[in-house]
Protein: Molybdopterin-dependent oxidoreductase
Amino acid sequence: MTATIAKTTCPYCGVGCGVNFTIPDSLTESVPSVSGDLDHPANFGRLCVKGSSLAQTLKSDDRLLAPMVNGEIVSWESAVDTVSAKIEQVIKEHGPDSFAFYLSGQILTEDYYVANKLAKGFLGTANVDTNSRLCMASAVVGYKRAFGSDTVPCNYEDLELCDLLIMVGSNAAWTHPILYQRIVEAKKQRPNMKVVVIDPRETATCDIADLHLSIKLGSDAAIFSFLLQHSAQMDILDNDFIAQHTNGFNDALMQAMESTPNLVSTAKFSGVSEQALMTLAHWWEKAERTVTFYSQGVNQSSSGVDKCNAIINCHLATGRIGKEGTGPFSITGQPNAMGGREVGGLANQLAAHMDFATPGAQKLVQRFWQAPNMATENGLKAVDLFQAMEEGKVKVVWIMSTNPMVSLPDTAQVRRALEKCELVIVSDCKANTDTTAMADVLFPATGWSEKDGTVTNSERRISRQRGLLPAPGEAKHDWWAICEVAKRLGFQSAFSYHNVHEIFSEHAALSAFENNGKRDFDIGHFCKITKEEYDNLTPVQWPVLKGRPEGTKRMFEDGRFFTPDKRAKFVPIVPVLPVHVATPEWPFTLNTGRVRDQWHTMTRTGDAASLTKHTDQPYVEIHPKDARQLGIEDKTLVRLTSPYGEALLKAKISRAVSPGNAFAPIHWTQQFSNAAVVSNLIPQIVDPLSGQPESKHAQVKLEAV
Ligand code: SF4
Structure:
């Protein structure tokens, strides 16, 4: 029997590994298989356990196969009519902001583009937010404050070329396994390379750490504030770079000297030993090639943006940016968090990396789209959006490819919000999730291996996810469903795409529209991409400027940033602890994260039998000392209570957490057990600048059941 091998991209994490997908000639006699793509620059043939198990997830007994309205199967035509009529009615009666999209870092750039265009250009609302808000919104604002744009400077090669790698708030060994394997390999090749892990927990990533700083939850910024002032004291500043390419250094340094005046005060604030802090400072002094790799442990915080800028300040001060093996590197959690950012898929973005505040941008986008109802200001960010639903301000929400009933903080509030909406539309592959249970209208969506389009990974690399298998039942692409609704609303010509190639080239053309070198991040090279070229697109790093088809490996090599005067900006930072720290009434601080073999709310990975073996039950990690005091034994049931809700989890007694802290993974849903949903416990506290929830910190009580 013969087979076809096609190249596509893994749908799970932000590493964005290339996958060879082998399709047998007869799908009835044989099943597809996957292997790592040797040619893909993210993974060079490797796949982690999640990626390797993709073939096991292709068939599901719980596939949503037909549109449904109020629990009844209906035709697509009827479902689209219902949705468009309701959107039309609420906008007429209550204005454009009574409608909202809640999207996902799982959907493709082309889906994002069309949703953003419909809402911001044609319906007149910027209420387009996404679960990427829970993932990397703080990193976006941090980059924007410092560089004038949301731009990741580094690439994966820099992780292998650096002499010092500082990993902050990341358990990459489990969450970004292929990057972790690349780092392990690099360290083997160059044993002098140092790895420092800054994390309250002793995670699997610490296996390669030369130093682990087990900091007090949320105290990260103090470490970098200390490194900034230490760099000045030790005379390792890059004074030429500071003078020629930055603004605001003195203010940032003065603040660092005030906030973290010395080793003793910093050690006390962050809860690490002076000796460990001094070791880090010493390595920082010596290693010109330093990358700081950070993830959700930094971003999911009420001061996440400041933490990002504390990190960036250190790199700017020492000129460790825009060169091989250097840079502040935010690693996104999701496969297309970056692609969504490129087309404006957040409520505070407009389109093509322009904001509502960008002078002239709103009119420019309106001209390009020939848009009749342009939104004029930022929409509501995820938590605010769900609060507006509960207040009755947002009346219709269209949720796509995400499960906010499990992933957003304070699930009781999310339930109240969805119950209050007049119409909840959910597009999903699965029939039965905690969120589809709240839907009035269900749209059956195509999933990985059926969907077609592009994604952008953490190093800005655009890759194709290819539609290789036929869509089952009545499942349709998300962009198609959006266009059908748009056409019913009277916007036929603007949404008459025949395929994703047409959408992608329009997105490229918008990024280059009336640009003439004024904006630095268009992908104008792709404006005239043919369908054949798009179909055969090989992975390339954004931005792909006109005349530079090879893309852009590293940003800021010329020391020019995207601010009006082309200088990067230092931001003075005052380190603070999380809003909710332990109190006598709530004596424990709960930290959240992931397990090695599951992804998000397990809607796909839960279908792979081999992946459930690693961890088959939700659990809470508790330090042995605390467990003794509370009379809790390993594997016994523990009740966790917070001011927002309750969860019942099995105890895992472990020294990985410090006394007074607990840790629980986020994957389990109400379908497993309502008592297993960890988001029940999390408050809706957000970073004031990014709107990203402080999902890593909840005050809880623990008791044996
Ligand atoms: Fe997929 Fe991420 Fe694993 Fe790569 S590291 S195979 S992208 S889950």
Notes: The first helix runs from residue 49 to 52. Residues 137-331 form a domain with the Dimethylsulfoxide Reductase; domain 2 fold (CATH 3.40.228.10). The pocket of iron/sulfur cluster is lined by residues 10, 12-13, 15-17, 43, 47-48, 50-51, 176-178 (CB under 6 Å).
